[in-house]
Each structure stands twice: as structure tokens, then as C-alpha cells.
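Morning. Coffee machine broken again, so started the prediction first thing and wrote up yesterday's gels while waiting. Chain of 293 residues, entered below exactly as on the submission form.
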Amino acid sequence: MWPYDKFLGRRKRRPAIVAHRGYGADAPENSLAALDAAMAVGADIVELDIRRASCGTLVVFHDKTLERMAGTAGAVADLPMDELSALPLRKGRGGADAPLTDQTIPSLQMALRHARARCYLDLDVKDPADLQKVAGLVRAVGMADSVDIKTPVSKPADAVALFGVESRFGVMAVPILTLTAAQVSSHVRLVAPQRPELVEVVFDHLETFKEAVRALKRVNAKIFVNTLEGYCGEGLSDEMALKDPAAVWGVLIAAGANVIQTDHPDALADYLVASEREFRTARQKVGAWWKLS
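Came back before lunch.
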């Protein structure tokens, strides 16, 4: 595998695909099986959520509580790793009606070793206090060049903490900026001096996104968008993309997105293959016309 930054730099027309919490159509989200499933359908990067168990072990789990995915009461932070790892996870996105599976909550170390040399990882660190511990583990297992860590940035202290970890441990820092039109300039100024390799942008309107892209491209940042419901304004979501991928993923790519996170990496991969085929066909037609003219 290329180092992460070189991989992002090599992307031309075709953006990278991020599978949200792995691919959870059948496998439980954030499980090792979901990680495998994401790679099988064409994801380049797998997003995983990181929390800490009561014993200090970093675990891969989204919610604060265990109810939705493990069907039991209690908080992740209140149980040690040996108890968490004994809990079977519910299928897919969980919920009361989802059956239990043979998958259990993995530690971050398990997930890192499972993904090594197979895909890039996007680690959503739920508690910023865990950033150093996460980055330290990533470096300790020799994966600093294939993993990013991300957390929201809305004030100077957030940027100092996130980029300080990048500087110390050599793990790519990805700030998450949630923007309205009025916030673009101030929030971009928080991260621009660090010249980030990749920035996740959450926005209210497409014009806000375009303005953010223009500002971030000035410092050569790549742009990460998340098409889950509620992350992109104007209905640019997975739900709409499944009906009309060009109206969502195509619009975002045209507006400057380099990396797209989705719950449907299979559908996004199919769309990118089809659109690339259309592009090559159109280019061939233009070439033929040019030779005849």
C-alpha cells in the first residue's frame, strides 16, 4: 500500500470511498466482519469509532451505551475489555429487532492488525481526551502511514490538541469542520496554518461547501464529505444517492470532494466505475471528432 498521503495525492478524477463503520448490511457495524465486508465491496478507507473501556483499552464502538448494538444496559466506559469482548453484537445497525451474531466488540489493536496492509483506516475518536492514546497505539503497531485520526474542530484549543498529536506521533490529523456560510472563514483559519492533508466538511448549503473547498484548496487540503443523513445540506444524502447517484455523489465530486463516506460503499463504487466509463467514452468521441475536423 502507498503511504496514506501519497494515496490521497494520487487520486485524480475518482474520489476515495470510505465505508462508514465498515459495511454493515449483514455484519455488525464496527466489527471485524464489517471491515472485511467493506473491503470486499470496494472501499479504500474504513471508518471506525473509538472509545475507551473502563480498564483503559481502546475499543471500536460508536454509542456511549451498549443497548443498540449489544442488547444490554450499561455504558462502554463502565466495563472492562474482557466483559465487552464477550458481548455478541447485533446484525447491521443493531436495534431491538436485529438478531445477535457471532461478532463481538473488537479492541482498536485487533482492528489495526486486521486491517494492516489491506486498507486505510479513518478513526473517529469520540472523546478528544483519547487522541494521544489512539495515535500512540497506531504508531506502536507501525501503522502511522495508513491511518488518520479525526475529531471536530470549532475553536483554537481543538486545533491545537488535534495537530499537536499529529506532530508528536506522525499520524494524519483530520479536523471535522461543521460550517454555515458565516463560519467558513473563521473555521478554515483554525486549520489552514497546519496545512492539513485532509479535512472533513459538514455543511448547510452547497454554496457553503463550495466556498469551503475554495478556501481549503488554497492550502492544498483534500476534501472529505459524509453523505449520511444530516451531514450535507440540500438533501445530499445516501437516501437520495441511491435513487440518483449523479445528483448527490456526482454533484459533490464536481464541487471538489476528494473522499466520500457512505453507508453504501458498494453503490458508490458502482457509480464511480460507471461514471469513469462514461468519461472515457466521451473522451474517445471528442478525440475521434478532433481527428475528423
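The radius of gyration is 20 Å. Going to sketch it on the whiteboard this afternoon.
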